[in-house]
């Protein structure tokens, strides 16, 4: 009987040990599962954190570009349009101007050609600025004229009013000038359409080259 009791106690002890081991295993499994769950949550949190940053960064940049660039551009265009139509006169157009050139040399040494523009349009316009001028030579080449050192003056023309600008150069009195001008190609300020005018009769010979001739900005004749 003692042997049986001892054996039974041994069996109970083994069973208790196995039970404890099983409990520890479950606990370890739970801890491991919990640890895995925690790691997965951190990784998920990191992914979620990075995606909004990337999405917000690029999406915000795109939104900024579209709304900032697009809307600002439209606003700027509207503002410019309002300025042009509301605050400034339209520029005088070549088709509305009667243009001619004449010799206006003050003496035998200083050459000057006055080019006059009369507003033949029905509205007031602005002729402010430097005109474009090329001199065409007898060999059929044309040479652009440099601007003189002068500040443009506000030049507003009502219908029938005139503005003038000057070409200035030194006169060659030796008879050895190499320049043989035949015509002037004139483009009014802020315009793209050009008119051809004959070189004024009686104008003195140009001393040096065409690069020595200067054009000055428009001003009113008053």
Q: In oligomeric terms, what are we looking at?
A: single chain
CATH homologous superfamily designation of the largest domain:
Immunoglobulins
* Continuous helix count: 1
In total, the number of domains comes to 2
Question: Outline, from the CA principal axes?
Answer: elongated
User: Low-confidence parts, pLDDT < 50 over ≥5 residues?
Assistant: 1-85
Please identify the top-level CATH class of the largest domain: Mainly Beta
User: Which structural class best describes the helix and strand composition?
Assistant: alpha+beta
What's the end-to-end separation, in Å? 145 Å
Number of DSSP strands? 12
SSE order, as H and E? HEEEEEEEEEEEE
What percentage of residues falls in helices of 4 or more residues? 25-40%
Describe this structure in words.
A hairpin with a 7-residue loop joins strand 9 and strand 10 (195-198). The relative contact order is 0.14. Helix content is 39%, strand content 25%. It has one helix and twelve strands. The protein has two domains: 1-88; 94-220, Immunoglobulins (Immunoglobulin-like).
């Amino acid at each position: 009987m003692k042997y049986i009791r001892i054996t039974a106690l041994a069996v109970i002890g083994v069973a208790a040990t196995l039970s404890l081991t099983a409990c520890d295993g479950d606990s370890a499994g739970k801890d491991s599962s919990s640890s895995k769950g925690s790691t997965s949550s951190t990784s998920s949190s990191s992914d979620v954190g990075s995606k909004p940053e990337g999405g917000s960064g690029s999406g915000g940049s795109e939104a900024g570009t579209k709304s900032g660039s697009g809307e600002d551009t439209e606003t700027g265009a509207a503002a410019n349009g309002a300025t042009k139509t509301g605050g400034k006169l339209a520029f005088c157009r070549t088709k509305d101007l009667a243009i001619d050139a004449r010799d206006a040399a003050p003496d035998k040494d200083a050459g000057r050609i006055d080019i006059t523009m009369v507003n033949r349009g029905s509205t007031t316009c602005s002729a402010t600025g430097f005109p474009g001028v090329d001199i065409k030579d007898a060999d059929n080449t044309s040479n652009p004229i440099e601007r003189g050192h002068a500040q443009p003056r506000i030049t507003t023309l009502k219908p029938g009013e005139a503005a003038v600008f000057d070409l200035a150069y030194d006169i060659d009195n030796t008879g050895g000038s190499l320049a043989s001008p035949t015509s002037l190609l004139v483009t009014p300020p802020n315009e793209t359409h050009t008119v051809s005018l004959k070189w004024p009769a009686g104008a003195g010979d140009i001393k040096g080259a065409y690069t020595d001739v200067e054009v000055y900005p428009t001003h009113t004749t008053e």
